[in-house]
Design goal:
The protein is an alpha+beta fold. It has nine helices and 21 strands. Strand 16 and strand 17 form a beta hairpin. The longest helix has 14 residues. The mean pLDDT is 97.
Length: 361
């Protein structure tokens, strides 16, 4: 049976088309996916992402545990509220999940994990804690008592402040990838669209009240369909499409999240060192007429590859994709993509495609 967020009835009342996403009943759109995409780029939209799971890591051993668990190094986090994007790897170097870790104290971190991997992630964390010295000094607490509302767009912050009186003082100073705890809310200056805004972690019983307060300020509800085209334009990976348990993080464009500058031993490091990446993830823009999708064959001068995510990009009026291709393929190269038996030309570009409403390629 599918799971439902605290906002499920609110979505139905708004006329949302509901689909199954990672075992959850979620809104794909509220009428026009194209219009919802444009609203976020031009104004402000809100997403119910309560299917994602906050996990609290607490205890005297929290920092040491996360330095072993994650491929990026939480020792970089010294300022309360600072966040870090990282992969969590398995012993073979595959990606268990990509996640954001928020630091509040050396004995208190909050991680937000993906919906489809949440149970697997928590089980993996607990297994790793049990196997490391001092693992008993860490508690791992899934927080399904929280909801998450993401508000994104050039006007998102001002509309959040109007909807949540008193929140501006604590959240206006936040830089990108910082968070602040305000009363029982966590206001995170993060997002999955390439626009400004907040991801708000809040007690589940308050979700409907806050959603309605945002709506009263003119923030429009946005479904997961537009969220996907927005994140694609922003060059942001989707777990299960662009990486998974079997893919090398560097071959998923995530080399920048792997911190190997110290002799820190983290799960998966030995495998990465033993088996260097053979491919890379690039952005491509279709130059012929057609639509790029995932799992399309890509032909390059260095060999064959495959698209991992692809769609029509409303901000660009073009078809774009991520493609996993052999090393040596560079920005500016021309490649070909097999679309229904025809080889169509595409251009390799630097990602992101779009950021803060501006087309960059």
């Amino acid at each position: 049976m599918s799971k439902q967020t605290p906002l499920y009835a609110t979505h139905l009342a708004a006329g949302a088309k509901i689909v199954d996403f990672a075992g959850w009943d979620m809104p794909i759109h509220y009428g026009s996916q194209l219009e919802e995409h444009k609203i976020v780029r031009a104004d402000a939209g809100m997403f119910d992402v309560s299917h994602m799971l906050p996990v609290d890591i607490e205890g005297a051993g929290a920092t040491d545990f996360l330095r072993r668990l994650l491929a990026n190094d939480v020792a970089k986090l010294t300022e309360p509220g600072k966040a870090l994007y990282s992969c969590m790897l398995n012993e073979e170097g595959g990606v268990v999940d990509d996640l954001i870790t928020y630091f509040f104290r050396p004995d208190f971190y909050r991680i937000v994990v993906n919906a489809g991997t949440a149970d697997k992630d928590v089980a993996w964390m607990r297994k790793q804690a049990a196997s490391m010295p001092g693992g008993g000094n860490v508690t791992i607490t899934p927080r399904r008592d929280y909801a998450i509302i993401a508000v994104q767009g050039p006007n998102a912050k001002t509309k959040v402040w109007a909807a949540l009186p008193g929140s501006q003082a604590v959240s206006e100073p936040l830089k990108y990838f910082q968070a602040a705890i305000w009363n029982d809310f966590t206001l995170c200056a993060t997002g999955y669209t390439g626009e400004q805004g907040f991801e708000i972690i809040l007690p589940a019983p308050k979700a409907v009240e806050v959603w309605n307060a945002l709506a009263a300020q003119g923030v429009k509800p946005i479904g997961l369909g537009a969220r996907d085209t927005l994140r694609l334009e922003a060059g942001m990976n989707l777990y299960g499409s662009d990486m998974d348990d079997t893919t090398h993080p560097i071959e998923s464009g995530l080399g920048w999240t792997i911190d190997m500058k110290t002799d820190r031993s983290f799960v998966g490091r030995a495998a990465l060192e033993a088996k260097p990446a053979q491919k890379t993830l690039v952005g491509i823009v279709l130059e012929d007429r057609g639509v790029l999708r995932s799992h399309m064959q890509v032909f390059t001068a260095q060999g064959e590859g495959e698209t991992t995510s692809g769609s029509f990009a409303p901000s660009m009026n073009a078809s774009i994709a991520f493609a996993r291709v052999p090393l040596g393929v560079n920005v500016g190269d021309t490649v070909e993509v097999d679309i229904r038996g025809k080889r169509l030309k595409a251009r390799v570009v630097k990602m992101p495609f779009v950021r803060n409403g501006k087309v960059l390629v």
